[in-house]
Amino acid sequence: MQQAMQLYNDVSKKCSEVITKxxxxxxxxxxxxxxxxxxxxxxxxxxxxxxxxxxxxxFHDFDKAKLLKKFREDTYMAIEEGISLNPVLNAFQxxxxxxxIDRGLIDAFLDSxxxxxxxxxxxxxxxxxxxxxxxxxxxxxxxxxxVEGNTKQYNELKEPAKYLGSAFQKVNFLRDMKSxxxxxxxxxxxxxxxxxxxxxxxxxxxxxxxDDFDKAYEGIIRLPEGAKFGxxxxxxxxxxxxxxxxxxxxxxxxxxxxRIPNDRKILLLIGxxxxxxxxxx
Length: 281
Description:
Layout: H1 2-23, H2 25-32, H3 36-57, H4 64-81, H5 87-99, H6 103-118, H7 124-147, H8 151-175, H9 177-184, H10 199-220, H11 225-247, H12 250-255, H13 262-277
Helix pairs in contact: 1-3, 1-5, 2-11, 3-5, 3-6, 3-7, 4-5, 4-6, 6-7, 7-8, 8-10, 8-11, 10-11, 11-13
């Protein structure tokens, strides 16, 4: 009986891994560079946040508010009971209970997903709340996995982890400006209008993102050894994407989704591995 339960739990975690690999090549590449002990935990976090994001961004022919409400209820029930018939939530409840991920982080994340159902423009206060819930808390969930119960280390690294999540999310917002506006009617950056987006807007956003990256780096180099290389690899990928966006014109940002090709990602990975070998990170 115990063996059968273990099989179900393993299959549940595998579902989150499949979701991660199919939805994010960059994140998948980075996870592979973590020590194996962290793989399932991070896959389980990503599977959960990806599924919630799909509810608000993709399921247009369904009652999204109803689906998200049910998803929230099922999430908390899974955590409390230690099991779910939804494999993604079963994997998530495992990582939450195993690594003692705070309920407040989960609340903030789901609240930010709910904001996407009702808002398409964000003032500075709402923007800060959304960035925290949609990105910073995801970084904190991952940090919970990396520190493996070391509360002191978690508290020392939580601010840089939040900045890293914030930087990644803001880069995503710049990269996805066209699709966010045309497909969902959203513009996340406060005071910015899609049809009025200009070079000054772009420069100010880029300055804010670079500040987040700089503050995040201070924490990356202090991460546990098993996590440092993988997180730094994700940092390198996003810095490369960010640099490409900075070089692009306003018109290009508004007209296409700027990407880093997979072969370029592999070269970045190799370069990062070289730095690691010589203790440069």
